[in-house]
Amino acid sequence: MAKKKISKKIATTTRYPTYVKRVAGKGWGAFCTKRIPAKAVFSISPLLVLSGREARLMSESSLEAYWYQFGTKGRALAMGLGSIMNRSDEPNCSYHFSKKDKTLSFFALRSIPPHEELTHDYGWSSAAYEAYGIARKVPSKRG
C-alpha cells in the first residue's frame, strides 16, 4: 500500500494541540494544551467563501456573528477554530488570510501558556460591538 502524502498545512495545525470548552459569559472558547511560542502558527482553518446571496441569508440567521470579511465585498465562514475563538481587547493571537488557498492561519502574538484561552481582535467597528451587546474597553487618554 502506497504512503499517503500528508499536507504540510495540516501537519502545522496539529503541532500545538487545542481543545474547545464552554466559557462563562462567552459560549464556546478555544484553548491550547501546551505552550505556543510567539509567532507560531497553531491553526489553519479552511474558509467557506460565500456568494452574495449566501451572505445575505447568513446575516439573517444565528450564523451572522461567525463570518469574516473576505476581500472588499465577500464574506467567508471559517471552519475549525476560526469560528470558535473569542475576542479580546488584549488578544494573544492574530490571523492571516490566504485568498489563494482560501484559509485563515492563526498565529501567536506572544508566548501562550498551556490552557490559556486563545483570543483575537475581531476588527469590528464600535457600532458592531454595540449591536452585539459586547462590552469593549476604551483605551484611557493620558495627558
Describe the structure.
This protein has a domain at 14-45 and 79-131: SET domain (Beta-clip-like, Beta Complex). The protein is 14% helix and 34% strand. It is built from three helices and nine strands. The strands form two sheets. A five-stranded antiparallel β-sheet has the order 4-5-3-8-7. It has a four-stranded mixed β-sheet with strand order 1-2-9-6, with no helix packed on it. A hairpin with a 3-residue loop joins strand 4 (67-70) and strand 5. The longest helix is centred in the middle third of the chain and has 8 residues, at 52-59.
Name the strands of the widest sheet in spatial order. Answer: 4-5-3-8-7
Q: What is the H-and-E element order?
A: HEEEHEEEEEEH
Q: What is the C-alpha radius of gyration, as a whole number of Å?
A: 17 Å
The level-1 CATH class of the domain at 14-45 and 79-131:
Mainly Beta
Q: For the record, what is the CATH homologous superfamily label of the domain at 14-45 and 79-131?
A: SET domain
CATH topology of the domain at 14-45 and 79-131: Beta-clip-like
What is the mean pLDDT? 77
Shape category = globular
Distance between the termini: 70 Å
Look at the helices and sheets and give the structural class: alpha+beta
Architecture per CATH nomenclature, i.e. the level-2 architecture of the domain at 14-45 and 79-131? Beta Complex
